[in-house]
Amino acid sequence: MDGVVLLHGWGGSADSDWEANGWCRSLARRGRTPLAVDLPGHGHRPQSHDPGDYADLASEIMAALPDGGRLDGIGFSLGAKVLLEIAARHPHRFRRLVAGGLGGNVFAPEPLGHELAGVLETGDGAEAPAAVRELAQYGVGNGNDPLAMAAVLRRPANPLLTPDRLTRVRCPVLLVAGENDPVARPVQTLADALPDARVRVLAGVTHLDLPASAEFQRLALAFLGAESAH
Hints:
Elements: E1 3-7, H1 14-19, H2 23-29, E2 33-37, H3 57-64, E3 71-76, H4 78-89, E4 94-100, H5 113-122, H6 130-141, H7 146-153, H8 163-166, E5 173-180, H9 188-193, E6 197-206, H10 214-224
Parallel strand pairs: 1-2, 1-3, 3-4, 4-5, 5-6
């Protein structure tokens, strides 16, 4: 077992979240095989404008993973949510998981989704809240198709995780969030629903800053056993 699945968040890509921030190089230097996968509708994947094409994100990702064997996984935001969904469906698929930028929000609808989708579809964010404009710029700035990004937001609700379903996640999980991340906090809500979870909160880090955080990367690699924790 040396493969590590890397799954980015909404609006990012395997290149922008993992390659650009040195995650793949760090894993490879430690003898691990990085498996950086684009979420459906993102990066180098086909970018459909039909929300129905995003009705089961977890199945799409499972189809992109190597057959057989246990893997480790690192996910950010929506990517972390999808990895937890896969672990709930297939409790023996992962040895360990790191979930960044995810907490109590795992049980709630995406709060800015409808308004953000509208901005991406029209290209007009003049009257939108600053947080919505920032997210729209983030997704497009990472090279994604704005209409595909909107379709992902308007998809049939999935993954649908509940505290009961999360009891099926048998692997240890490290939850990491920035102290300035109102999207993920409170993280403890998610930790309480998982059979084996630990939480780290990083000082001065926001939601979108997390993939670039050297401390997040250090904690994740240590947790997976890719280096010694200090």
